[in-house]
Amino acid sequence: MKITGTIITLNEEKYISRAVESLANICEEIIVLDSKSTDSTRNLAELSGAKVFTQSFLGDGKQKKEASKFSKNDWIFSLDADEYLDIELIEFIKKIDLNSTIYDSYSFKRKNYCGKEWVKAAGFYPDRVTRLYNKSKVNYDLHIAHAAVRGTKTYKSESHIIHNTYENMEDWVDRINFQSSLGAKQLFADNKKPSNARPITRSLFAFFKKLFIKGGILQGKNGFKVAITTMFATYIKYIKLNDLYKNNKN
User: Fold this and answer.
1) Of 81, 78, 126, 67, which Cα lies nearest the Cα of 105?
2) What does the pLDDT look like over 197-226, one tens digit per residue?
3) What pTM, to 2 d.p., does this model score?
4) 119-141 core/surface letters (b: 16 or more CB in 10 A; e: else)
């Protein structure tokens, strides 16, 4: 069974060639669906062997589902532009017989990095994600942010995707700003009502969950780093939700 790799992009010139070349190890076709990048993303993707299409950003889930529509194969491997496949994952997929498998999807562990540091603390690992799926049976949900493939029968592989999540702490904060905006839009679309108390209560619970339930308090500086940034991201997301209601009312 042949696999199509898909990547959605927006100004990803730093990593796009690596992502395409990584997928080429397991895919006979690679689709890049670009959201009108202003850098050299599209050109680099084509030079690396991908088929490139352009589509205004529809939200994480819709965009990834849209990318799968360009594929000629039913089996899709969805990769983010700042990710690549570990050698063990490549070898694992080469051994799968997708023609006779009983599964509609496969999930993998993900190693998230901030710069050169692998961040494991407070739930950052194993960060399991479903990326190989049969589009004739399942696909991405339509969430604006942090969409996921909702498989009905998913095989859990122990192999890894490597993710350059953040370049540094400045990039981490920038990503929080971007992702919190998408998260607020999703809450607004889900008809979550505004609240002056919710930004405080939700962010405090997020901090408690990462620090105590996820064990961050026992994991040193990275445990606190994850807990504090998660608390901040949660607070900002709900503040932005309130702002969406104010702006909509005006």
Assistant:
1) 78
2) 999 999 999 999 999 999 999 898 999 999
3) 0.91
4) bbbbbbebbebbbbbbbeebbbe
